[in-house]
């Protein structure tokens, strides 16, 4: 196939990049809405979702703390205000069929992102991130425990031992930093931040309908200007 023919191929993969962080509740909700929007398309298999690393709170301690403690340490306020906000997001998530535990812990996510890059190198980045995040918000795992991450890795067909090795070193640290830097260059200030085939971007957790519209616009733009993708 010639280069020109490949460029105009209607089945060319459309890459959707999502800058996200593990503990971000809107990343959790937005991820599922984006998945639903893609699943509703007849060409769903054409879309490739790629997770990109972005730390919402790079100064967070490595020792896990409660969500209330983490928010108050970073932003001030009081525990009741934090829990009120959490309950609002919990109700929204549950209306969409997503479990949402209020007993989650918070800690620095840099090491988690390093494991995501190992998983991505093995073709399992999104699957690993999604499984870990879903189980975290369901209150089923402590993702800051190396053994818990190793078990999640094994659930998606990766090596738990390799995860432990990554966590014991600084492997993939440069890749995590590079993702964050690229995100900031693209204008990321918060997550989720979704980039559609490097054509359009959406900040925040959009509705299923808005994601669906963005997917359609991306496909249309790709068809009219394939070389830009």
Report what the structure shows.
The chain is α+β, with helices and mostly antiparallel strands and 229 residues long. The chain has a single domain (16-28, 36-205), classed as 3-Layer(aba) Sandwich (Glutaredoxin), CATH 3.40.30.10. The protein has ten helices and six strands, in the order αβαββααβαααααββα. It has helices at residues 3-7, 25-39, 67-75, 79-95, 110-121, 125-137, 146-155, 160-167, 173-185, 208-224; strands at 14-20, 47-53, 65-66, 105-106, 193-196, 200-203. The strands form two sheets. A four-stranded mixed sheet has the order 2-1-5-6. The protein has a two-stranded antiparallel sheet with strand order 3-4. A hairpin with a 3-residue loop joins strand 5 (193-196) and strand 6 (200-203). Helix 2 (25-39) crosses helix 10 (208-224). The longest helix is centred in the middle third of the chain and has 17 residues, at 79-95. The radius of gyration is 18 Å and the shape is globular. The two termini are 18 Å apart. Mean pLDDT is 92; it is low at 1-8. InterPro entries: DSBA-like_thioredoxin_dom, Thioredoxin-like_sf. Residues 15-215 form the DSBA-like thioredoxin domain. Pfam families: DSBA (PF01323). This is DsbA family oxidoreductase. It comes from Leifsonia virtsii.
């Amino acid at each position: 196939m010639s280069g020109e023919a490949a460029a105009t191929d209607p089945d060319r993969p459309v890459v959707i990049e999502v800058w996200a962080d593990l503990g971000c509740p809107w990343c959790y909700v937005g991820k599922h809405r984006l998945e639903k929007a893609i699943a509703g398309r007849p060409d769903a298999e054409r879309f490739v979702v790629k997770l990109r690393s972005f730390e919402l709170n790079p100064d967070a301690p490595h020792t896990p703390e409660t969500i209330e403690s983490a928010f108050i340490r970073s932003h001030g306020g009081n525990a009741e205000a934090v829990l009120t906000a959490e309950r609002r997001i919990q109700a929204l998530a549950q209306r969409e069929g997503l479990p949402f535990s209020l007993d989650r812990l918070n800690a620095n996510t840099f090491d988690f992102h390093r494991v995501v890059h190992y998983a991505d190198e093995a073709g399992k980045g999104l699957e690993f991130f999604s499984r870990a995040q879903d189980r975290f918000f369901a209150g089923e795992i402590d993702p800051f425990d190396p053994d818990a991450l190793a078990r999640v890795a094994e659930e998606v067909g990766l090596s738990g031992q390799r995860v432990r090795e990554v966590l014991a070193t600084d492997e993939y640290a440069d890749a995590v930093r590079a993702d964050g830097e690229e995100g900031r260059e693209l204008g990321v200030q918060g997550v989720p931040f979704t980039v559609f085939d490097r054509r359009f971007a959406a900040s925040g957790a959009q509705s299923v309908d808005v994601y669906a519209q963005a997917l359609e616009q991306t496909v249309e733009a790709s068809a009219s200007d394939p070389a830009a993708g």
